[in-house]
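Support request, please re-run this one:
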Amino acid sequence: MMTEDAAAAAIRVTDLRKYYGSKAAVDGLSLTVPRGCFFGFLGPNGAGKTTTIKMLMGLAEPNSGEIEMLGHRLPAGEQEVKARIGLVPDETLLFDHLTGTEFLEFVGRMYRLERRTAQERARELMSLFELDHAARKMIGEYSKGMRKRVAMAASMIHRPDLFLMDEPFEGVDAVGARRMKDLLLEQVRRGATVFLTSHVLEVVERLCERVAIIHEGKLVVESEMADLRSGSETLEDIFVRVVGGGRQTESLDWL
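Re-run finished. Output below.
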């Protein structure tokens, strides 16, 4: 039976650990992401962000700890959860020998949409993401930014309750990124949850209601963005301070 607290949480991880050999990529992470929240998950390179998202996606198995998503404990409720999440991984897993429209139709059918519904939504999403000019081009011909837009369109085709996004704006031009941000904000307004990683802290500060920062696999900050803004530090200041980047920058005499 689902508890009241579980019903309020889109994601809940408890003492999560993942080792590669003797190295802990994620080391005792506990985190709760409320439903209907735009949540930023931050950390320096190698901090464990992508490993965490892979465990949430079911692409990596934790060594220990618990994962609960949308009220279902994993891995037991994995199938129910996967039907309700939209994924944008760091490496866009697209089929280069399909057109953008064909790929979206394929994804829609994988989520058990009726054929006509999948076709209609694919065409509408290609237009919404300003890709209709490339609707008949093979994805292998797309730029990195276009591939990211197709990946985000695919994540939306079944109208999920939870989005897991690893660097979704990387390589996307300013106009495309603005469009993607507006669409994600619309999804949050309708009650969906967005769990986002990004190295662009200004984007996180502008979009997210709540943030968590991990370093060396451990949670070092979790806070409402409003509470962070109440001080004199920016999100960048806090990030640099807590991940140990505050040491004085060395200079080279010849540079």
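The two ends are 64 Å apart (CA to CA). The first helix runs from residue 4 to 8.
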